[in-house]
Amino acid sequence: MRLKGRVWKFGDNIDTDVIIPARYLSSTDPTILGDHCMEPLDPSFSKKVKKGDIIIGGFNFGCGSSREHAPIAISALGIPLIIAKSFARIFYRNAFNKGLALLEADIFDEIDQGEEIVVDLSTGIIKWGLNEVKAKSIPPFMVELVNEGGLINYLRKKLEEENEKI
Amino acid sequence: MGMTLTEKILAAHAGKEYVEPGEIIEAKLDLCLANDITAPLSLEEFDRVGAKKVFDPEKVVFVLDHFTPNKDIPSAENCKKIREFSKKFSINHVYDGGACGIEHALLPEEGLVVPGDVVIGADSHTCTYGALGAFSTGVGSTDLTYGMVTGKNWFKVPESIKFHCTGKWQKWVTGKDLILNIIGMIGVDGALYASMEYDGDAISALSMDSRFAIANMAIEAGAKNGIFRADEKTLAYVNGRGKRPFTVFESDSDAKYREIYEINVGELDLKVACPSLPSNVKDAKELYNIRIDQVVIGSCTNGRIEDLAMAATVLKNKKVAQDVRCIVIPATPKIYLEAMRRGYLEIFMEAGCIISPPTCGPCLGGHMGILAKGEKAIATTNRNFVGRMGHPESEVYLSGPAVAAASAVKGLIIHPSEVV
Ligand code: SF4
After folding, report:
1. Could you tell me how many helices (H) and strands (E) chain A has, helices first?
2. Which residues of B13-22 are buried (b: 16+ CB within 10 A; e: fewer)?
3. Does A35 touch chain B (CB under 8 A)?
4. Least CB-CB distance to A89: which of B45, B50, B222?
5. Which helix (H) or strand (E) holds A2?
6. For a disulfide at B2, which of A93, B31, B59, B254, Cβ 3.0-4.6 Å?
7. Considering only CA atoms, which of B307, B63, B342, B294 is closest in space to residue B208?
8. Which residues of A touch B103 (CB under 8 A)?
9. Stretch A59-68: mean pLDDT, rounded?
10. pLDDT confidence band for A165 (50 / 70 / 90)
11. CA proximity to A75, closest of A108, A57, A53, A45
């Protein structure tokens, strides 16, 4: 899959409280969550970002809470991919479970806000201007999960098969 | 090659003799937990997959602790959905109303987690139960749904990091100061994906309440879990509460660790994590003239009886400084009652504190103590990220109960020896 979009940069240790502040968690509606995404860092982010744009982060992106509202809020804005130096563990798992792609690559310091990048998800090749970088490969188990359409689709299929047997 | 405590528990639950770090396994679950924020998403997914039942109604727990007593209409609707779901699927472990306490203080207290368990919770501080010698970790709502339906989930076996702690604890210093010190030392991603294991005579000397506080903040170092070997103190705690039979696992002497840290707790003084990362740790004595507007003594980290006891020692016959709100939140109804019997609540009321019912409330900026623009708080909670307790331009300092209570009296962040 090939993705092309503008870059939004967000630094190290971007935590789930800034991705979506807890006061909005009484909603599970993606549109509402998206509207408040990154609000503490940039209150107008959700207005400025366009579908297909890509987030670039530093170390430990998504640290903090296990709230799945965080990847949901990001996806709701039409952001298909985050590239960071590293990701927090629960966020990593949640994003893949929810179908938000993540790549680990150390490009934060090389790239400017607003630049356009092109990413080939299957090879992990990231290109912008005259630069080309290959992201760390995704563990095979995660690829399998993504191919199955996320954990819930995988489970649904499994349950349907069991029901057919009965 | 030997195995660590974490590896042994995971191997046993995957039906294997041996596992090693990096390996992906499918493990059986002993307990699945969700709260009033994360359960609604899980229940939506549950509907979506078309599941007809949960794998074992006795092994699913819902705690309605975050936005309760219901803070607004959407929170009330969420709690209602969880209650209805629980009735429909015969889930009895629902902690609500007067039975509600903060999940990670409540589950051990109720004996729902025992040594050797594998527990997942749709809450990042599920790692708290490592204090009991269990493997427990936070997951998202989707993973929780998968667990609730199948009774299993996949895990990557983590590498282990050992913290070997020796020496004699100084006055006022608790497990909270040790874990803040460790996070300050290794950073908020210092244990990313790894297991943090604690041992040594300084750990044996620690109370269960302090061990819970240490295990609780494993996630603030990026870890998958924090874990302690179940010793006599653990067994004394579990016996009489534990609802299931259990197995005690121990690390082998030739188990492999990614790193081993030697810590002399005798050198530790009281710590404070400054805004806006839990790793921004300083000695309380280094901080001068930091005025505070609010103090929060509570949460799944430090809302237990030992914490309230320490706060009461500091606040006895003292007054909370003018212009400071000091909110005390006993973490569970049992802790609340015990604090009442011991006379702590009277001490807090006479000092001018506000006593809240057991709730997460201000810890995550939910309700019951939100900060305005420019305000500062010191809290015994576990996170001080930007905007965690309210306005994006408010600030949170993290400490143990003694520093928090002393700061309430002075209106400045201060070491308790300056007050008592
Ligand atoms: S007290 Fe705070 S950290 Fe603990 S479960 Fe509640 S919100 Fe989370």
Report:
1. 7, 7
2. bbeeeebebe
3. no
4. B222
5. strand A2-9
6. B254
7. B307
8. none
9. 95
10. low
11. A53
- Give the residue among B103, B112, B133 at the shortest CA–CA distance from B208: B133
| Residue B311 to residue B399: CA distance in whole angstroms | 12
The residue behind tokens 């269960």 is B208
Per-residue pLDDT, A166: 56
Bond preceding residue B276 cis, omega within 30 of 0: yes
Sites in chain B below the pLDDT cut of 70: none
What is the set of domains in chain B, with CATH numbers? 5-263 (3.30.499.10), 272-418 (3.30.499.10)
Q: Three-state secondary structure along chain B? A: CECCHHHHHHHHHHCCCCCCCCCEEEEECCEEEEECCCHHHHHHHHHHHCCCCCCCHHHEEEECCCCCCCCCHHHHHHHHHHHHHHHHCCCCCEECHHHCCCHHHHHHHCCCCCCCCEEEECCHHHHHHHHHCCEEEECCHHHHHHHHHHCEEEEECCCEEEEEEECCCCCCCCHHHHHHHHHHHHCCCCCCCCEEEEECHHHHCCCHHHHHHHHHHHHHHCCCEEEECCCHHHHHHHCCCCCCCCCCCCCCCCECCCEEEEEEHHHCCCEEECCCCCCCEEEHHHCCCCECCEEEECHHHHCCHHHHHHHHHHHCCCCCCCCCEEEECCCCHHHHHHHHHCCHHHHHHHHCCEECCCCCHHHHCCCCCCECCCCEEEECCCCCCCCCCECCCCEEEECCHHHHHHHHHHCECCCHHHCC
Name the residue facing B365 among A22, A67, A139 (closest C-beta). A22
Determine whether domain A2-165 maps to CATH 3.40.190.10: no
| Ligand 1 proximity of B302 Cβ (cutoff 6 Å) | no
Q: Single out the residue of B409, B176, B214 nearest to residue B295, CA to CA.
A: B409
Q: What distance lies between CA B313 and its chain's CA centroid? A: 23
* Integer Cα distance of A80 and A133 in angstroms: 19
Residue whose pair of structure tokens reads 């003799």 in the numeric block = B17
CA dist., res. B244 & res. B364, Å (int): 32
pTM: 0.95
Pairing of strands B354-355, B325-328: parallel
Paired residues of A15 in beta bridges: A63
A41 near B CB under 8 A:
yes
Nearest to B63 by CA among B31, B37, B29: B37
Question: How many other CB atoms are there within 10 angstroms of residue B51's CB atom?
Answer: 19
B403/B419 Cα distance (integer angstroms): 10
Average pLDDT over residues A139-151: 75
What is the ipTM, given to two decimal places?
0.91
pLDDT at B280: 98
- Measure B189 CA to ligand 1 centroid, in angstroms: 20
pLDDT in tens, A8-35: 999 999 999 999 999 999 999 999 999 9
Q: Would you say residue A70 has pLDDT above 60?
A: yes
